[in-house]
Amino acid sequence: MRKILLLGNWKMNKTPLEAGEFMSEAKDLLELADQGGIEIGVAPTFLCLANVSELAPEGFLVSSQNVNEHDHGAYTGEVSAPMLKSVGVGAAIIGHSERREYNGETSACCNLKIKALLKEGLVPVYCCGESLATFEEGKTLEFVSKQIEEGFAGLSKEEAAKVVVAYEPIWAIGTGKSATKEIAQDTIKGIREVLRGLFGETAEEIRILYGGSVKPENIASYMACPDIDGALVGGASLTTSSFRELIKGASL
Length: 252
What we know:
- By secondary structure, the chain is α/β, with parallel strands linked by helices.
- It is 44% helix and 14% strand.
- Helix 1 (16-23) packs parallel to helix 3 and helix 2 packs parallel to helix 12 (240-251).
């Protein structure tokens, strides 16, 4: 059975001091999550990773928001998977729509990053999702399927099982709009079918999250869907009070 994962993407928010204040309640959040059989974690900026990792209780997932595909070298401003591992990071978000749009990241580039993370034993959280125009044209699954196929290219079944997929329709990120539970379920079910075509029954082991204006008020409806295994959460993950309500909602 796939374990629900709630991962907070803090984006470009929180100083190390503010991150530390949040993490002062991490143990209580983790105990609440454990009661519901849920895995939780956060993805702070690179600046806060070491601090958050040091404060995180065992079982609390600390993720970066990006990683470079190379182990080391002349890549100014970049951070490698071995560096992340050295400060206790357990995962990295790959291919978020904001990085695809603002930084020109491609699915082929994400594929290299996924392989770099797996090499170090870290969990890739691979994002996919379509624009409003693509959604309105009825081409969501066609678009997202290509992202999945390119991102997972060359992976073995064993490697694929270790990747977490996050479906985030771009039109629902930070807009206050959310895909209905039916849209989210249908798309994520389609993603799982694509993965089944690539990796057979291993697709049943791969966790697929929904992201896009997830809030305490709507998370329960998403978690009730059979193919949705958690959520990648933005703004609603920035306070411990909101995160606590997310955990409660996901536990219903």
